[in-house]
Amino acid sequence: MTATPHSNLYVRNLSPEVDQAVLQQLFQPYGQIESCRIVKNARTHASKGYGFVKYSSVESAHSAIQHLHGVLYGGGILEVKFADADAGRQQSGQVPGDNLYVRNIPSAWTDQDLLQLFLPHGSVQDCRLLQGGDASRGMGALVRMANIDEATAAIENLNDRIPVAGAALPLLVRFADTAEEKRAKRANSSAYAARSGILGSASPAAAGIAGAQLPAADRQGFAGVIAAQGHHHPATHLLAQGPSSVYIKNLPPEADKLFLYQRFAPHGAIQSVKVLTDEDSQQCKGVGFVNYVVPTGAMLAVQAMDGVRIGDKYLHVSLQTHSRMRGPLQ
């Protein structure tokens, strides 16, 4: 049985000029808005190109999707769909406790360095660095203080602080997820994976973009909307044919299949992924492939991910050619 969708929308492909006021003005005609926000880079405060709009009713959310999804606005084709979580609340680290989650720890640090960072704020019962993770956000860790008061003091004093001179990012320190929050995350992740085509065979409609797998008449209509506004967009060339795979360079050593799924699934239903690894270390050699169900997914992935910074490198993402093929995607 399919759950009734909530009234919160995820909006993607927003130009840097679109701020919160402009986003609200764009969505205001379709119903009463409860909350609206643009997601920004924590360090630069620049827009990440996506945001959330929550309406007071599901009907208003449906109306906004019907009128705005696939519309050319500010140089990009808007993607508007139901979000996995409400925009007005955080889903992690909201329940106070003595356990803390820490992010953006310098890659050269040890458990002892982490201990010395937290000792001035109370009695540290346990601390350990987490292996792997996203290189663009630094290392993660778990720290357990003696009580909630000490954990709260550590958050107040260390969150958003540069841990050492020359560190790339400020620390993120928050209460660790409770068992209930972890279950909610897993449920949201499973639901998103099912809708995005990560689990099992995905239907072409799961690509999630207007015109991706429509009948010929509708594809022509979609292209006509763009032409009528006096704009030319490459989406009009790849709605029905063209490469459906992308070639990726400059991946971090810890990149694996899940790494690719998490970053490339938002752009369309994925059929398969492949990461080239070193035979001895089993680490990624910096190269990967993502095969989409329809060509539109590949085109959108190139537009969104080419040039994205991961750690100290910038991804190179391009449409797959036969000359780059290293064997079948698995």
TrEMBL record:
UniProt feature coiled coil, ranges: none
Q: Name one GO molecular function term.
A: mRNA binding
Give all residue intervals belonging to the RRM domain.
7-85, 98-178, 244-322
Annotated organism of origin: Symbiochloris irregularis
Q: Name one GO cellular component term.
A: ribonucleoprotein complex
Q: Which SUPFAM superfamilies match?
A: RNA-binding domain, RBD
Protein name per its UniProtKB record: RRM domain-containing protein
Entry-linked InterPro entries: Euk_RNA-bind_prot, Hud_Sxl_RNA, Nucleotide-bd_a/b_plait_sf, RBD_domain_sf, RRM_dom, RRM_euk-type
Alphabetically sorted, this entry's keywords are:
Repeat, RNA-binding
Record has Repeat as a keyword: yes
The keyword DNA repair belongs to this UniProt entry's keyword annotation: no
Family matches, as Pfam families: RRM_1 (PF00076)
Would you say which domain of life the source belongs to? Eukaryota
